[in-house]
Amino acid sequence: MNLAYRLFARTPAIVIDLLLAALALSDGLLSYWRTSDTDTIYTIVAAAALLLRRRVPYLALALTLPSLFFGASNVAAIIALYTVAALCSSRIGIVVSAVVVFCGNTSFWAESLSFAEAVPDIIYSLMVAAGPTALGLLGRTHTELARRVSELSILRDQERERIGDEVRAAERVQLAREMHDVVSHQVSLISVQAGALQVRSSDASVKDASLTIRRLASRTLEELRQMVLVLRGPSDDGVSLTPQPTVADIDDLVANCGLDVTAQIDLPDELSPALQRTLYRAVQEGLTNVRKHAPGAHTTVTGTVEGKVITLLVRNSAPTLPALDLPSARHGLLGLAERAAIHGGSALANPTPDGGFELVVTIAT
């Protein structure tokens, strides 16, 4: 039954209407031998009226009534009555249509029938009128229920999405609070201590290192403030990480990283903001890893374009000092690989034969 219903639902409406019109026409023409030419015309008009039943149900029913009352076919009227019940919302109109079809099928009001003849005739006429009406109302109820279920499903999905947005917003606020209260506080202390060390120390190298630490801490604080704004703001309010780092900022990043770095960056400035931000973060991540894992190493940073492929290389030699004992979850390289993948590229980190390390990021423009 479900298969038959699905096949019926997928059949074009015009095909169904043509089949019903053919059925109504056949009902009248099968009794052609005992009908007049006028009855045949009534049958043809009634069958043709079924092609209008979806757009003007009442008119279609009215055109079938001559065949019902005076002709030899009642199938067209039954189909038209079903259509009225299924498509029209007026209860009065549906009841009147059913009564008219009932009157057209029964003969007790036009002929002198005995009680034994009238009862079966009335019962038959009631079935002919009530059956299509009930089926039409049932079909309309089914359609309405399906529409309501579809609306409820959409509302449920919207509610689920809204709850998810609220949960994510609460998590962003919590994360912003932790960043502001914990991370920003500690970075501020680093900046203050570096400033104090710069003032108190008489060693030039210590002063330079303190200055570098203070600059890095100040920049980190600024980026943290921007991230807190993004996390606290709604996802659609237009808040963004401003100012966004670009390729032009890589030179300043290298100059203030506090490492022995040789840089040769030859990248165009007309790249998309997202791509420039990815390249900047790649250099930043590479220098951070050198600072953590290869103190004292010489680092080279190169950025070139060949055809439509950008290659960014951050390579360091073997470390000359013990590595710093700093916490690391290796999320930086993972996030960098995800950033590169968004632009159709890749990020690979591998050791070099001389005991160093290299980070290679390739992106297609």
Structure commentary:
- A five-stranded mixed beta sheet has the order 1-2-3-5-4.
- It folds into two domains: 2-150, no CATH class; 245-364, Histidine kinase-like ATPase, C-terminal domain (Heat Shock Protein 90, 2-Layer Sandwich).
- It is built from eleven helices and five strands; from the N terminus they run αααααααααβαββαββ.
- With 365 residues, the chain is an alpha+beta fold.
**Strand order within the widest sheet?**
1-2-3-5-4
Question: What fraction strand?
Answer: 5-15%
**Radius of gyration, CA atoms, in whole angstroms:** 41 Å
Give the integer mean of the pLDDT values: 81
Number of helices: 11
Specify the structural class.
Answer: alpha+beta
Query: What sort of overall outline do the alpha carbons produce when their principal axes are compared?
Result: rod-shaped
Run of helices and strands: HHHHHHHHHEHEEHEE
Give the strand tally: 5
The N- and C-terminal alpha carbons lie at a distance of 56 Å
What brief labels describe this structure?
365 residues, alpha+beta, Heat Shock Protein 90, 2 domains, 5-stranded mixed sheet, 5 strands, rod-shaped
A few lines on this structure:
This protein is α+β, with helices and mostly antiparallel strands and 365 residues long. It is built from eleven helices and five strands.
